[in-house]
Specification:
The protein is an alpha/beta fold and 199 residues long. The protein has 6 helices and 8 strands, in the order βββαβααβαβαββα. The protein has an 8-stranded mixed β-sheet, sandwiched between helices. 47% of the residues are buried.
């Protein structure tokens, strides 16, 4: 489905369980899409626990750009599209949101404003490669009071958040920024959280 925002149209692919327990709105990283194996693993895991799942292609990707631009318009568009999805598919349902890499940053930055119960952060980019002094830790912390679940690769050049900065930080040994394996670990980590958020 197409969703109009202040930054242009976004697109969302919606999957419904038989008995909805929560709404999960999930998005890609910079330059990415919503059909990567890790994102599909998140979708399948959420569906199994009663999640209505919206996989969102953000406006900049619909427009053909690879870079998201400044955070403010990106966050505004995200807030608009999540609000629209809540009205259509999740009125009264707990909101969970998330993304991979840049998408995880957006989900964390907007969680408080949107009242999200939880945030799924795949490959949260704690800092640019080789520049640990340029930390994005504040973006992770601002998501509270939502529970933030981080799943990062052990060899991610973008860094790994401190376990004290999230409800859970799961590290998949040997994996880079884009997961090549460990999809069962993603599902195993998220299952109890989706169950909890849907209660």
């Amino acid at each position: 489905m197409r969703i109009e925002t202040s930054s242009g149209p976004a697109e969302a692919e919606i999957d419904h369980p038989e008995e909805p327990a929560f709404l999960l709105v999930f998005t890609h990283g910079a330059g990415g899409g919503v059909t990567s194996r890790d994102i599909l693993t998140v979708r399948d895991t959420a569906l199994a626990e009663g999640g209505v799942v919206a996989r969102v292609l953000q406006p900049y990707r619909v427009a053909g750009r690879r870079a998201p631009g400044k955070p403010e318009p990106q966050d505004k568009a995200w807030t608009e599209l999540v609000t629209a999805l809540q009205a259509d598919f999740g009125p009264g349902l707990p909101l969970v949101q998330g993304g991979r890499s840049n998408g995880a940053r957006v989900a964390c930055r907007t969680a408080g404003e949107l009242g999200a119960r939880g945030v799924v952060a795949l490959s949260f980019p704690l800092h640019p490669p080789g520049k640990p002094e340029k930390t994005r830790r504040d973006e992770l912390l601002v998501a509270g009071p939502a529970d933030v679940v981080v799943i990062n690769g052990g060899s991610d050049p973008f860094g790994i958040p401190d376990p004290a900065d999230a409800a859970e930080v799961r590290v998949i040994p040997g994996q880079p920024h884009s997961f090549r394996k460990g999809f069962d670990t993603i599902a195993e980590t998220l299952t109890p959280w989706f169950r909890r958020w849907g209660e």
